[in-house]
Design goal:
CATH topology of the largest domain: Aminoglycoside 3'-phosphotransferase, Chain: A, domain 2
Oligomer: single chain
CATH architecture of the largest domain: Alpha-Beta Complex
Number of strands: 10
Number of domains: 2
Order of helices and strands: HEEEHEEEHHHHEEEEHHHHH
Mean pLDDT: 94
Radius of gyration: 21 Å
Length: 370
């Protein structure tokens, strides 16, 4: 008798012209969606695809936004997996399960990207060449998105509106305690994070911030969402968090993911040398492309604050996942401590000054083409 997963995948494939299922492997890397590498046989040829089963609750408008972005990027030549349409021409399949609450589940089948899944978002140790290549792909993504006309929309608020919600979520944690080591750590650092959010909101309420460049942002750009061949990036994926927001927030979040150490006593400290490589490669790529808008002095001024915002964004995901799912508190304590340790690093004035000086120099007008 076939397993429930086999039955489920075969049912999905009946709506596609991709051949018969011969094998599959579950992707164990994700925290949000469920995914499989699926192998089919069509006209005597074995083929491999990537099947994503989206988390429950995602809206159809959000899928339309994500999929229209992916199709735009594929057309622009970005290293992004093509979506396979169903027999009736849709980029996704909507299915209801036994006992469903009328929400249902969405599925999409993608090409399987070439390259190696070399890293996750946890403890990525990249070479300087890999950091530079990753920065170039992010810059290329931002360039490609200039002409994007989206369908649908991402429901998550823009970061300036989301931060007060993050503050409310953090402040509500003690009342939701499960009585674990995770909750004890939150209680221990309540005032630290509240103070950090208050100071951050004060900076981002300055009038200049609202006029900073907006674009479509990836909003989850980390080494685990890239594939590498040698030291080249040959795949970029996971666009389900993408939305229209501050370009500088996308870069700040990426810097936090790529450059914050997970190593022992250095956990949470920010690798300024890695950030320098990333920023210079990003800016130089923009400057080399006529018509592309390089990072502005105003964006560079607020970038250190937005690196810190990137940390708060991931901290918010950590606590929401912990309280809304049945997760291992010890596993999630690692994520929580990582964000708290960065907050402690960032709160030291000397570190903030060093980060400000780095952003100003690495993104200086020297890199702007005449």
């Amino acid at each position: 008798m076939d397993s429930p997963v086999t039955v489920e995948i075969n049912d999905i494939l009946t709506q596609y012209d991709l051949g018969e299922l011969v094998d599959y492997e579950k992707n164990e890397r994700g925290f949000v969606n469920t995914a499989f590498a699926i192998y089919t046989l069509a006209s005597g040829e074995r083929r491999r695809y990537f099947l994503r089963k989206y988390k429950r609750g995602i809206g159809e408008d959000e899928l339309q936004f994500e999929h229209s972005l992916i199709e735009h990027l594929v057309e622009a030549g970005a290293p992004v997996a093509r979506i396979h349409s169903t027999r009736d021409g849709k980029t996704y399949l909507h299915r209801f399960e036994a006992g469903d609450d009328c929400v249902g589940v969405f599925y999409t089948i993608f090409d399987y990207l070439p390259g190696e899944d070399r890293y996750t978002w946890v403890d990525p140790i990249l070479s300087q060449a890999e950091i530079s290549a990753s920065a170039v792909v992010l810059a290329g993504f931002h360039i490609a998105c200039r002409s994007f006309i989206p369908l649908g929309r991402r429901l998550e608020p823009r970061i300036l509106d989301l931060l007060p919600v993050v503050n409310e979520t953090w402040s509500s944690c003690p009342a939701r305690s499960k009585g674990t080591v995770f909750d004890a750590r939150i209680l221990e650092h309540q005032e630290l994070v509240r103070g950090n959010i208050a100071a951050t909101l004060s900076v981002l309420r300055e009038a200049t911030v609202s006029s900073l460049p907006h674009t479509v942002i990836h909003c989850d750009y980390h080494p685990g969402n890239l594939k590498f061949t040698g030291e080249r990036v040959t795949g970029l994926f996971d666009f389900d968090w993408s939305k229209i927001d501050l370009r500088a927030f996308d870069l700040g979040l990426a810097l936090w993911y790529f450059c914050t150490s997970w190593q022992g006593a250095q956990d949470g400290s920010f690798r300024l040398d890695w950030a320098n490589t990333f920023l210079r490669s990003y800016q130089e790529f923009l400057a080399a492309h006529p018509g592309a808008s390089t990072f502005t002095p105003a964006e560079a001024h607020y970038l250190p604050t937005l690196v810190n915002v990137g940390n708060l964004y991931v901290l918010n995901w950590t606590i929401l996942d912990y309280f809304n799912k049945d997760v291992d508190p010890v596993e999630y304590l690692v994520f929580l401590d990582h964000s708290l340790n960065f907050t402690l690093w960032y709160e030291r004035p000397a570190n903030q000054q060093a980060l400000e000086e780095l952003c100003a120099s690495s993104l200086s007008p020297h890199y702007v083409t005449p």
